[in-house]
Amino acid sequence: MARPRKPDACVLGGGMWGVVLAQQLAQNGARVRLWEFVPSLAESLQRTRRHPHIPGFRLDDSVRVTSDLAAAAGGAGVLVFVLPSSAMARTARALRAAARPARGAVAVNASKGVERGSLATMGGVVARELPSLRGRVWTLSGPSFAREVARGVPTTLMLGGPSGAKAREVARLFAGGALTVTPWPDRAGVELGGSLKNAIAIGAGILDGLGAGANTKAALLVRGLEEMGRLIRASGGRADTVYGPAGLGDLIATGTSGESRNRAFGEKLGRGVAPRRALAEIPTVVEGVEAAAAARALCRRRKVKAPLIAAIHAATRGAPARGVLKALGFR
Fold first, then answer.
1. Which amino acids are annotated catalytic?
2. 225: domain range?
């Protein structure tokens, strides 16, 4: 009997998480092409197999790295989007014009965020810009610091999207070693959980910067989870999604870990650093800033009361950081 053909996968985005997912897919037997927008970075990664922000990591030799979108995505059966939320729509449009994926291809969004203006989730942006993939878009999310996954730290993720045999097949593409992936029939809830927790994590960092203790942070995480749940339900997600890895799990990790750039940004705000300077002091993208703005806009659109989200958003725009304490009922 012939062996099953290894899937062709294209990972779009050469940041830490994109590189680690490319490695995971390759280790699971996929034939992987990794697309990086900046040609010099693509060339360096192809040549050295190293990522400057992941100590000790080496990308498998089988992974081809390129900045040519058509070469990376053409004929791919699996498209994995690991991009900043601000680049998702234009990259998807460029892909539609430049390449034709394999017939029946699936898309997996591994980015966290909400689009400005439309307030669409990232999986929604993929489905909108690539209509041929509608009905075959999933989102992979959960507590997943790239450096920890690269070290083999046990990690559990959720795969939000259509349920059934195809979802289980997609989950198996990523699962293996220390990584487990659970299919979950609520893409909207999984995506919003992954985005909203970035905003709440800024609030957790603000408390660290203000010198508040574990008691206060626990109160913030509980209130944050409550507001996340209300907004997810108002946006059509499932009430129980917020208690899974893509909600509570991701919130705990991002709100408490030293790996979290969102928490680190919040800590700087709590210490009195101006938002612009705080962003400049962090070398990678702090997606919680956009997430806070989107969360505030979603609350207004869905008519959801979320005073903690409002206070965190205000702090990212220069309002006094102690407003987060006031939103929790403390003076």
1. 197
2. 189-327
